[in-house]
Design goal:
The complex is a heterodimer of chains A (355) and B (290). Chain A is 72% helix and 1% strand. With 355 residues, chain A is mostly helical. In chain B, strands 1-2 form a two-stranded antiparallel sheet. Chain B is built from eleven helices and two strands, in the order ααααββααααααα. Classes of the chains: A mainly alpha (355), B mainly alpha (290). Chains A and B meet through helix 5, helix 12 and helix 14 of A and helix 3, helix 4, helix 9 and helix 11 of B.
């Protein structure tokens, strides 16, 4: 007997109980900055950033099958663009370009999307391994160039984002709480948008490319179109995540904000949770947050090594991640719909015909 | 403008460095050509090889030229174990799994390296007496010349192994057609194990050689991976001569880049060449059609 009954072909997110639990969770998360201390708020903020990063990378890698190792570049560029726009004086930019925080965050995401729009058609001339390593090289170049441009990025000193918000804030909203709430909203939006995409015909196109690009292409699916779709949406959200990160922490540094460590964390989250599933990255982000804190207290400095080992073991022995485990053992959809159910469905459709 | 002597010296140093890059790239190229796997941990294995030579030299004063042999043995074993324990589950299973497994391994090596050895850069010294050659216009420094000669020997040795030994021929047959090789009675599982062993041993050799010229820290893995891969695409997968030439080209161009644009551009130059070649001529300059 399964815990959650589910019809074939439907995902957990369609289940009313899951939806209700999700809504409750979001509501609970929304109260955090007002009832919890600074430490907990920051921890959960990081978790939300990871959700956005994981869900967006999963769209590109898990669904469209394009293993990008350059996610950090879009995250970091979003962060820097938003920092330039809220604190233009830090980079000797004209003060006239200063924007309110929320608008700056949006522009950060848009610029990240724009970068992916420009480099996408070039990078997608590469397939498979070449694409993975090409994106790794691209991200490395972007980081090196940004580190070299000291006047715009602060170089090794980093870039301080002005903490005076342009907007008037209504108490008890602080600048931090505002950014936290926006991040929560964006995380929810990222999940919903990704869910809509993967359940739509576009999502089918992506999965077709993922499974067999040549066959899909032969059947009239334009691989470039779907890859670009996934890449641009994915980069947009990564850019937004970076921008929010910059506005929350108020300090960014080309050495760390553009660093491959963001790509690594994203991969760990998605793989622990389950690649190519909507709920996977959500579970993964929660798991990662707990794991990261647990590991740093148990194994200390070796936590990255343990995470690396975990993704190796997961991908070799449990490629569908924790979500896969839950799906296998808790949610049974192996059996076809029972006759009872079919009869009920028929009755109700008959009833509709009569009425 | 830099003087012509400085330019000539930069060119020569670049060529000598390029030989080592070619060794690193050859290991990557073998594994890619035969197993269709990009070893994302290749740069980190190079780092491990470098540290083996550095630690041995620091502890006992044994020259890294000997340390290199130890590094090669250790990394050969690492490669064999890696293939037998992990990779054989995912090889031929599509792209994602091997990429992620090796990515995870790179993380483990980098993190363990940092914890065990600290984040500081360290280097070794050639540790044997000898003097460089002054050719008037340019000076061939002793360690650079010796490491270059060893690099070329390693490349020629690998070529001869593939060309003339029974196992080498079996490796080449597997590269040409995996299925046909299997029908001919070649144990391709074993070939994979040997190939990964040789590939990682070459990474270890390159690391030991590099440790005599440049400091190594636990974070150098990614940049050497990208450089080695740049050489592979430049030379074409599976072409040994192409790999050597590609290594020299990358060595020279990044040294020239550092001379004209500043030290910060060393890596930007080689990564950019890599992306450019990948996009313009993905089959490499020596277009091996593997």
């Amino acid at each position: 007997m399964s815990l959650i009954e589910r019809r074939r072909g439907r995902t957990l997110l369609d289940d009313r109980r899951v939806q209700a639990a999700g809504a409750l969770l979001v509501a609970a998360l929304a109260t955090v900055p007002f009832v919890m201390n600074f430490y907990v708020t920051e921890l959960l903020f990081t978790g939300l950033v990871f959700v956005i990063l994981g869900v967006s990378w999963n769209l590109l890698a898990g669904y469209a099958g394009q293993i990008s190792l350059g996610h950090a570049a879009f995250f970091g560029m979003g962060a820097f663009v938003s920092a330039w726009l809220t604190t233009p004086t830090g980079a000797d930019l004209p003060e006239s370009i200063q924007l309110p925080v929320l608008l700056a965050v949006l522009v950060g995401g848009l610029v990240a999307a724009l970068i992916s729009l420009v480099v996408g058609p070039i990078m997608f001339r590469l397939r498979g391994h070449y694409f993975a390593i090409g994106t790794l090289a691209l991200a490395a170049i972007i980081q090196l160039v940004m580190q070299d441009q000291r006047e715009y990025t602060g170089g090794a000193t980093g870039y301080f984002v002005d903490s005076d918000p342009v907007e008037e804030l209504v108490p008890p909203l602080t600048a931090e709480a505002t950014v936290y709430l926006v991040t929560l909203a964006v995380a929810v939006l990222t999940v919903l948008v990704t869910y809509r995409i993967v359940e739509s015909p576009t999502g089918l196109g992506m999965k077709a490319i993922h499974d067999d690009e040549d066959a899909a292409s032969g059947l009239g699916v334009d691989p470039l179109k779907y890859k670009m779709y996934a890449f641009v949406v994915s980069s947009f959200f990564a850019g937004i995540a970076g921008a929010l990160y910059a506005q929350y922490t108020l300090y960014i540094n080309p050495g760390s904000t553009l660093d491959i460590v963001w790509t690594i964390d994203t991969l760990v989250i998605v793989i622990l949770g389950g690649m190519g599933t909507v709920a996977g990255p959500l579970l993964g982000a929660g798991l990662f947050l707990g794991l990261d804190n647990l590991l740093s207290s148990v194994v200390g400095e070796l936590s990255t090594a343990v995470e690396g080992a975990l993704i190796v073991l997961f991908i070799v022995f449990l490629p569908s991640g924790v979500y896969g485990l839950i799906d296998d053992y808790l949610v049974s959809d192996a059996e076809p719909r029972s006759d009872d159910e079919r009869a009920t469905a028929k009755r109700s459709s008959d009833a509709t015909d009569d009425g | 403008m830099a003087s012509s002597e400085l330019v000539a010296q930069t060119l020569v140093n670049g060529l000598l460095l390029g030989g080592i890059y070619a060794v690193a790239a050859l290991g990557l190229s073998l594994v890619f050509g035969i197993m269709d796997i990009v070893n994302l941990a290749h740069g980190h294995m190079l780092m491990v090889g470098g540290y083996v030579a550095i630690i041995l030299f620091a502890a006992t004063g044994i020259t890294p030229l000997v340390g290199m042999l130890l590094a090669m043995v250790l990394l050969f074993v690492l490669g064999v174990v890696l293939q037998k324990v992990l990779l054989q589950h995912v090889v031929d299973e599509g792209l994602e799994q091997p990429i992620i497994v090796l990515f995870g391994l790179a993380l483990v090596l980098q993190n363990v390296g940092r914890v065990l050895l600290g984040g500081d850069a360290r280097s070794s010294d050639i540790g044997v007496p000898g003097s460089g050659l002054d050719l008037g216009m340019v000076y061939l420094s002793f360690p650079r010349t010796v490491t270059f000669v060893i690099a070329v020997l390693l490349i020629v040795g690998t070529w001869a192994y593939l060309q003339y030994t029974k196992t080498g021929q079996a490796i080449r047959a597997t590269a040409q057609n995996r299925t046909a090789a299997r029908y001919m009675g070649i144990d391709t599982e074993r070939i994979y194990v040997i190939t990964l062993g040789i590939g990682t041993a070459l990474a270890g050799a390159a690391g030991s050689l590099l440790s005599m010229l440049y400091p190594i820290d636990p974070f150098v893995g990614w940049s050497y991976l990208l450089k080695a891969f740049a050489v592979v695409v430049l030379g074409g997968v599976g072409s040994i001569l192409g790999t050597l030439v590609g290594g020299l080209v990358i060595g020279v161009s990044e040294n020239l880049g550092a001379l004209y644009l500043g030290g910060g551009y060393r890596n930007i130059v080689s990564f950019s060449i890599f992306l450019a070649v990948l996009l313009i001529k993905p089959e490499g300059l020596f277009g091996g059609s593997q």
